[in-house]
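Researcher: Hi, I'm a grad student and pretty new to this. My advisor asked me to get structures for two proteins we've been looking at. I'm not sure of the right format, so I'll just paste the first sequence and hope you can take it from there.
Model: That works fine. Here's the first sequence with its structure tokens right after it:
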Amino acid sequence: MLIESNAAQTEIARSLVPSREILRVAGREGRAVAALNFYNAETLRAHINAANELKAPLILQTTELTIDYLGIDLVVSMAQAAAREITRPAALHLDHGASFEIVRKCVDAGYSSVMIDGSKLPFEENIDLTKRVVDLARASGVSVEGELGHVTQNADNQDISRFFTRPDDAQRFVAETGVDALAVAVGTAHGFYKGEVNIDFERLREIRDAVGDTALVLHGGSGVPDVLLREAIRSGIRKINVGTELKNAFTLAVKRSLADSDEIDIRRTFAPAIAAVQEVSTAKIGVCMAGEN
């Protein structure tokens, strides 16, 4: 029986799975899952290496901009190949899907998880849009993440607390949409932070208690100190998104590589960038895997 069980786990790990399956296990074990954006073959290679080094499950993410850059069929094929190589379960997730149409495109193409971001819409319209996406995705077994409140850009220079998620709204949103995961606004933001990161942990714990088993997602994970990420996990976060730090590590490493050498073989030029991104990926996965400890 043990051999059969291990064989079954290996088979699961060789294909993309809905993120709900990965997040459900993380919830039971009191930890989180790193959701890492990839932009090209090099960043994807770094994530594969990091996940296998730590024997960790992984959520691979792309935004619509990356889909436009690479082409959706190539994105899905790359992620499927990655899932065959990663030794633990992996999902392919659409990050910040802005419309029903892009979500449908990703579901049809083979994404195993999608996010519909209706956070800028009025509450009732956000519910209606998210429910439509859930109905669509369920038919294909695809997981759905919604967003309530609004996670802003650090460059917005505004009082972000007015966009924070309210626990009562979260409870109703989850009940009426049936989402598998909920991105919440509790103090983080996208992009580089200009000052201290302040997360409203009391609010986060109230949201956790209000939504039950629904996985909570922390966007804007780049630049957040590890001590705050660990407290966020203890307070109910089960998925931590990282993008900015990965792009920064890659770009800086490529600049150094080009400045220090006349090398024209891009495989050698990009090797330091893969290593730099892998270092960030490994660190983020490590914090998530450590969980509530």
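Researcher: Oh nice, that was easy. Here's the second one.
Model: And its structure:
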Amino acid sequence: MRIAIVSDIHGNLVGLNACLDDLAAQGGADVVVAAGDLCMDGPKPKAVLKRLHEIGAQCIRGNTDRYIADGDDDPADAAMIGWQRAQLGPRWIDWLADLPTQLWFGPTDNALLVSHANPKNDDEHVWPDAAADQLERLFGDVPARAFAFGHLHLPYARLWREKLLVCVASAGLPKDGDPRAHYAIFTLRADGWEHKSRRVPFDVEKVADQLMKSGIPDLERCLRVLRRHRYKAIAELVP
């Protein structure tokens, strides 16, 4: 079994298609999984969902998908959520609302669990240096051999108590100082899951042009996040 996992596409059809083209060059996969945050902050939310549907991807709901589906009334995000909902229309809003929060693959004694941020909630970041108490709380009692998640737009793999933890990062808004999109390929083996990390260049300025033509609210922030491709918190570590 071979599974490709993309996450945090954030309405970036250019980044998603770059990852899918690279996956095809890598020999494809039995299953493509989209691990949440499919639309928010990007210029092509509906086109991303249509593309995922077109290829038969299995999708889960991330925190921003939940905001869109629920019509979250947080004033800080109200304009963006309203714009995303207007772009998607009722059918795709309902589709987001009905997505599961987790997907399991493989046999029960050698399972891969895919979630958005972690197995327990959809909005708590798990950084590469996460402390043992956080890992115990989020992963310790979950009967999986391997975990794949996003939410944090920074790829890494870590072995903890014989459990493989892989952040597949972002196919649409990288934030670790590398402007390339990222996804991962998982292959089921008898003794666990093998994973391959893939970084893929995409045309950032094409996405910026789409943003400028889209009418998206908070345009300058969206452009800044796209072009900066790093978290503010790591700005001093990643020039």
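Researcher: Is there anything I should tell my advisor about the second?
Model: You could mention this: The chain has a mean pLDDT of 95.
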